[in-house]
């Protein structure tokens, strides 16, 4: 279980994380959803120990980050938003480096690397220098490095940003498998579809605060499963298609009826778009 | 164990860039040897000896110093500010003391590697430097000290320009002023005092005396050890500043 209690993190006068508290059960696939600047990355970097909070506590299975950081870090895998691979090294060397960093037994290193690279479709390219890989390959390698030590918790900060749809779906498939193995996954994203498809718990974030948390279905149902949009300006939500149709029956305006998305939920509460 | 991980990574990096590293580190010392050594070496005398004889240990000192400094500072700076690969150490279960010592050792080895070429070049100049344990030890101290300076500099800068300015303002003047090319004793007193405060003056003195067979200057050795101790402590502390827990 991950527990964050009254977390604050500021940059000067601006609070990027402002009094955030939550608990995540083991095995949860959590999505932190919000537009750029909402505080998702800062929150994640604070959780994994890259940033020190001004106030508040973070604990993993009752181990406090302030006290047991080395123990906690052994159980965390991290994929940062930016590519932070060693460009001069090959895929295999990057993996060996990660394996050594997480103190994987010498006898097991090759086995674990082969297994992980095969899972992510990088095995055939293992001797290629990282700087010669495509964006999608680099992202996959970042994920491979993050899971080489079989962590209980995987943190991914916008892991599919800037990559093609096929690779993105491959990564989604892989993350789902890891989650099914019982791993807790925390993902920040501003891709609505990503959060809807993958996460069983979504936290909506804006201005450093989490203002709503539930699964996608409940978040949508809470405001209404169907959306009627007039002239692309006014938006109304209804619990059923029938209700939406009745509401628009005598309308003179141009309207459209569609299923409500998390983007709409976000807009409904904040008047801001995620993308 | 973790120190070995850093050394392994830097070793792989070195192998991938072997020719680039090797050739680039040879250019400057060869130019100095040709210009000051072979060109002027037989015409000038320092302390009753040909200038080339005096010059060689100075170049050895300068080359080990510059290469260890650059090896560490460039790698850390690029890792922190460019590809941000340095971050991987921070969220991994890595002790910052191991991280620091790993990089200082890697820098030391790079300094020694560069120094080895000066030994080889000296064989072709009729002024060969005799390799001894004491001389290698002094080179290790020199490389370690400047690896630490490179580490600290690259950990505190915010931009490439800052590091470049530090190198231009501190490292380059030091490499010329600290007795690498001339005798510090010839300087006016006021300059001499300032120069005596700089670490390269002492490492150069140690290297030169040992390579001439004059024995160890224990005062300079003490100064160098004090420098290394404090710079290593500062390096580790700065590294802990990067990690927030």
Could you characterize what this model shows?
The complex is a heterodimer of chains A (275) and B (245). Chain A is an alpha/beta fold and 275 residues long. Helices cover 38% and strands 28% of the residues of chain A. Chain A is built from 10 helices and 13 strands. Chain A has a 6-stranded mixed sheet with strand order 6-7-8-3-9-10, with helices on both faces. In chain A, strands 2-1-4-5 form a 4-stranded antiparallel sheet. The radius of gyration of chain A is 21 Å and the shape is globular. The two termini of chain A are 30 Å apart. By secondary structure, chain B is an all-alpha fold. Chain B has 10 helices and 2 strands. In chain B, strands 1-2 form a two-stranded antiparallel sheet. Chain B is globular, with a radius of gyration of 18 Å. Chain A binds chain B through residues 48-52, 65-66, 69-71, 73-74, 76, 78, 80, 82-89, 93, 96-98, 100-103, 129, 145, and chain B through 1-2, 4-5, 8-9, 12-13, 16-17, 83-85, 87-95, 243-245.
Kindly summarize this structure in a few lines:
Chain A has 275 residues and is an alpha/beta fold. Chain A contains ten helices and 13 strands.
């Amino acid at each position: 279980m991950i527990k964050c209690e009254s977390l604050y993190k500021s940059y000067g006068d601006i609070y990027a994380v402002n009094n955030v508290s939550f608990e995540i059960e083991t095995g949860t696939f959590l999505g932190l959803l919000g537009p750029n600047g909402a505080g998702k990355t800062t929150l994640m970097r604070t959780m994994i120990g890259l940033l020190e909070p001004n106030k508040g506590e973070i604990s993993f299975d009752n181990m406090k980050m302030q006290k047991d950081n080395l123990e906690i870090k052994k159980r965390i895998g991290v994929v940062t938003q930016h590519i932070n691979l060693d460009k001069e090294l090959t895929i295999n060397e990057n993996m060996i480096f990660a394996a050594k960093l997480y103190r994987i037994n010498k006898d097991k290193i090759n086995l674990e690397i082969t297994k992980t690279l095969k899972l992510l479709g990088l095995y055939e390219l293992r001797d290629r220098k990282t700087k010669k890989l495509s964006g999608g390959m680099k992202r996959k390698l970042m994920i491979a490095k993050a899971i080489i030590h079989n962590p209980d918790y995987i943190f991914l900060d916008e892991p599919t940003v800037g990559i093609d749809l096929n690779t993105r779906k491959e990564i989604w498939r892989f993350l789902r498998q890891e989650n099914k193995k019982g791993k807790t996954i925390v993902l920040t994203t501003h891709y609505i579809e990503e959060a809807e498809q993958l996460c069983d718990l979504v936290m909506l974030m804006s201005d450093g605060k989490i203002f709503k948390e539930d699964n996608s279905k409940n978040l949508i149902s809470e405001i209404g499963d169907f959306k009627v949009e007039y002239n692309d300006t006014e938006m109304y939500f209804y619990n059923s298609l029938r209700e939406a149709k009745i509401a628009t029956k005598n309308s003179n305006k141009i309207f459209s009826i569609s299923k409500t998305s998390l983007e709409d939920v976000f807009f409904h509460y904040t008047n801001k778009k995620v993308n | 164990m973790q120190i070995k991980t850093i050394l392994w990574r830097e070793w792989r990096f070195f192998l991938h860039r072997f020719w680039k590293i090797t050739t680039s580190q040879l250019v400057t010392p060869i130019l100095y040897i040709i210009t000051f050594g072979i060109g002027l070496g037989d015409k000038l005398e320092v302390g009753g000896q040909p200038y080339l004889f005096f010059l060689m240990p100075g170049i050895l000192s300068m080359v080990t110093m510059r290469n260890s400094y650059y090896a560490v500072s460039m790698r850390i700076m690029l890792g922190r500010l460019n590809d941000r690969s340095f971050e991987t150490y921070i969220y991994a279960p890595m002790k910052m003391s191991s991280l620091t010592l790993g990089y200082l050792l890697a820098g030391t080895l790079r300094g020694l590697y560069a120094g080895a070429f000066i030994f080889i070049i000296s064989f072709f100049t009729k002024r060969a430097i005799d390799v001894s344990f004491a001389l290698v030890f002094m080179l290790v101290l020199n490389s370690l000290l400047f690896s630490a300076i490179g580490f600290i500099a690259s950990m505190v800068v915010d931009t490439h320009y800052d590091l470049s300015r530090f190198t231009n303002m501190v490292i380059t003047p030091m490499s010329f002023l600290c007795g690498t090319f001339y005798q510090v004793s010839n300087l006016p007193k006021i300059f001499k005092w300032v120069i005596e405060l700089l670490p390269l003056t002492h490492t150069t003195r140690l290297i030169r005396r040992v390579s001439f067979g004059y024995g160890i200057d224990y005062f300079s050795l003490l100064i160098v050890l004090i420098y290394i101790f404090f710079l290593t402590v500062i390096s580790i502390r700065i590294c802990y500043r990067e990690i927030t827990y």
